[in-house]
Design a protein that fits this description.
Blueprint: H1 2-18, H2 21-24, E1 34-38, E2 49-52, H3 57-64, H4 69-95, H5 98-109, H6 112-118, H7 125-152, H8 162-165, H9 209-228
Antiparallel strand pairs: 1-2
């Protein structure tokens, strides 16, 4: 996890230093995202050659609501802190004995979750990684449902949780945004939040936000079930 956090933070630093993110967010369709610049005489003798970004990081940062370069730097610093925390937790796994964990768990905390996370003897990487990705994916689905989708509809709030308890689950996937819906506007806006239309939008050549939210929700449930099916030695 420390490597992943460091890798993402390095990409954010490159975008903030040499990218055109603030220009791109003004009109994402008209502008080409730039990952970083490169000084190389083989590309251009006297000018800075831009390298186009194909990783869709611009789109992901825009979905998070980040619009300014200082916000990218703050996120980069936060990921660096998470990387340091991940390294510290890894050292706990490596340098803590099986007996000390048992003693600390049963005598002080009496908490099974602590024993599952910090038990270094069984090396439960499957449970750790699946649970982490599951809850992270579920949180991203919640961000899309409660922030990104309403923002794309001009601030129009999405469906509440009442259809879930009334078993009217089909309401979450009915009346999706039509093709003539204007982004950031309530004109011709739908109300679906979890769909599986698999249709590509003609103006942006991307999936609908409701399709992406449904994908992350299904993946979160699948990984959560799979993590608990892991057999302990």
């Amino acid at each position: 996890m420390a490597i992943i956090f460091t890798w993402i933070s390095s990409s954010l630093f490159s975008i903030g230093l040499q990218g055109n993110y603030e220009l791109w967010v003004l009109n994402p369709i008209a502008h080409v995202p730039v990952a970083h610049g490169i000084w190389d005489p083989h590309f251009s003798p006297n000018t800075l050659s831009p390298i186009i970004s194909y990783s869709s990081m611009y789109n992901q940062l825009f979905s998070l609501g980040l619009l300014k370069i200082p916000q990218l730097y703050n996120l980069q610093l936060f990921l660096q802190i998470l990387a340091v925390i991940s390294i510290s937790l890894a050292k706990v796994h490596l340098h803590t004995t099986h007996q000390s964990i048992h003693s600390l768990t049963y005598n002080l905390l009496h908490h099974r979750l602590f024993f599952v996370i910090f038990d270094a003897s069984q090396l439960r990487f499957n449970f750790h990684i699946a649970s982490l990705i599951s809850f992270s994916t579920l949180l991203w689905c919640g961000h899309l449902v409660h922030v990104a989708i309403p923002a794309s509809r001009g601030g129009q709030s999405s469906l509440t949780i009442y259809p879930f308890f009334n078993f009217h689950w089909s309401l979450y996937s009915t009346h999706n945004d039509p093709e003539n819906h204007i982004f950031d506007s309530h004109i011709n806006a739908g109300q679906a939040i979890l769909t599986n239309s698999t249709q590509i939008k003609q103006d942006t050549y991307s999936l609908n936000l409701s399709d992406i939210a449904h994908h992350h929700f299904a993946l979160a449930v699948l990984l959560l079930v799979a993590s608990n099916m892991y057999q302990w030695a």
